[in-house]
């Protein structure tokens, strides 16, 4: 096991720079998830850590050792690919054993290690099968087994759950998390699914356009987003964003009473954006923030999502599942000011 | 009775709803006729070869398909002639070594061109492909001059060297390696294999159909090669089967019945190989988009 450090990591293809100086420290045994939209540079970063892409500038350290010029096999890492990359012409046992081909372990030790990994992953009965005889989840487990068998310092996962159906994805998510708790290796996991990131990570790295937007625990990125991108990327449905003006320390929205909010950082101008998560916004008569007409209802059982047309545009709120407002009904929505977020409209950075 | 009554209309209804059998149109008839004629055209030389091999010398120029007095005397004569075995052996050695060489070098070059990014890669590929456009007849003179300079005339090496690696094989293998996902190669790289090990243990087993198809193409091509072995060999001991068979007979006359007998016998190994691997040939041709 080892820590991982990325220092001013830059990647360019010809004149096009796709990663613009990534700085990140991953502690020994930490589970870090890179998340972001397509093309944000998360997979490129992972491939650079693996040694599959050359580093344009900056350094990658694994266990305190700069690995920039080392071959992938010399970095003490293992990677699980999106398409599993398990060899169709080999049995499950041979696929798992493949990770030990270059190991100096004795044959009996190798066999014992393969059996141990198969037992951890619940695949002992499948060892003689060929990949074509396995389900998607079982194939993914073989891929994880091949990575596990070498007991690497760092595990790298490149969107490993993307090809699974929703139910299997939830199951595998849990299995990977349990596996991490059991083996305790450092894990870097790449996904575009924010639910995967929130549920699995010790810390989440949110990326956009080759820049890190925020690094933090799931709780931090959800409750204290650093900017409007993070605020809207994390959480489903997305955070409501209401345009307003900051005048004399009060926020004026398109309609409704001015709102008192303490501002930690001065904005670049008067234009601000007030962010409220649908979870924190509910029908109320006491100190309403905004009012509007319900246009759509989405019953979720215990609660109902209501889409409300307001003077600031359409916003989403949560109402009681048993007695939600009817479509067409005018509702007043309120939220605890402590759960509201204020952003600078020009820079997108948080002000509270 | 009641049950029968119930069934009868149902059956009738089913019959009524069957699509009317379309009369075969003219285009289809022409197509089938052309295919039949093509088939006959293909099979006739083989039929005549076998027929002639069963004829006596005086009957050879008689075009009858069925010999008047069928005989196996030609087979006895050819199989008792020591030269036939010598040529057969020469052909086996040359076709086998050339096939193994092609499987190795064509797949290695194809893999490199497919999976590695290096300056000039496209140029090398185009240069290799462009050699496909040069006919053998144009190449035999440079080949001959080369053989002469290196002292390879009338030797196995001289016969084999032009075909030890082929542009067609390289192209075929490159096309097949395209179907091997890059993830497989990267995963093996992370698992600590060097590039040659990756090629051999990961990529090669995944392109077995292409290797089988290439093996058949190359083996058949060299087994039946005539022009170059004829030019490069001088002594009867170095002849390959097609060259040796073409000279059967004596100064006065060409013994067609013996040539046809030798040809019929030499067809057997290729037919066996073809029947076993024909499904691979079809897949190989489809993947490469080329005629064999």
Automatic annotation (TrEMBL), chain A:
GO terms for cellular component: ATP-binding cassette (ABC) transporter complex, substrate-binding subunit-containing. Pfam families: ABC_tran, TOBE_2. Residues 4-234 form the ABC transporter domain. GO terms for molecular function: ABC-type transporter activity; ATP binding; ATP hydrolysis activity. The keyword ATP-binding applies. Keywords: ATP-binding, Nucleotide-binding, Transport. One of its GO terms (biological process) is carbohydrate transport. PROSITE patterns: ABC_TRANSPORTER_1, ABC_TRANSPORTER_2. Belongs to the ABC transporter superfamily. This is sn-glycerol-3-phosphate ABC transporter ATP-binding protein UgpC. It comes from Halovulum marinum.
From TrEMBL, chain B:
Belongs to the binding-protein-dependent transport system permease family. InterPro entries: MetI-like, MetI-like_sf. GO terms for biological process: transmembrane transport. The keyword Transmembrane applies. It comes from the Bacteria. Its main location: membrane. Signal peptide: none annotated. This is ABC transporter permease subunit. Pfam families: BPD_transp_1 (PF00528).
